Here is the input.
Amino acid sequence: MKNERLNAYRIMWVLVFFDLPTETKVERKIYAKFRKEIMQDGFTMFQFSIYMRHCPSRENEEVHIRRVKRILPEKGHIGIICITDKQFGEMEIYFGKKEAERTPPPQQLQMF
Here is the structure.
């Protein structure tokens, strides 16, 4: 039981929020490239322009944050926030006025 409690605070979720310009064809290409690259790094869409990734540890979280920082576009607003699995589990999610069912976190294999 104690181990589960510690894991809820050790397991992290990284959220990337972005608002990139899409007025020109070049800007749309940059937007699509950024989105594609974070998805290739394991991020999934939570909402439009909000992507999240499950990380089994704070060390792993730091790796993915560095990867996102390496591919930041020149223009636009990008935010990165990290929350614990415990905090993520307390989020209330709604589709309209109906509360959404909770989906279990993804299973991650770890090699030691």
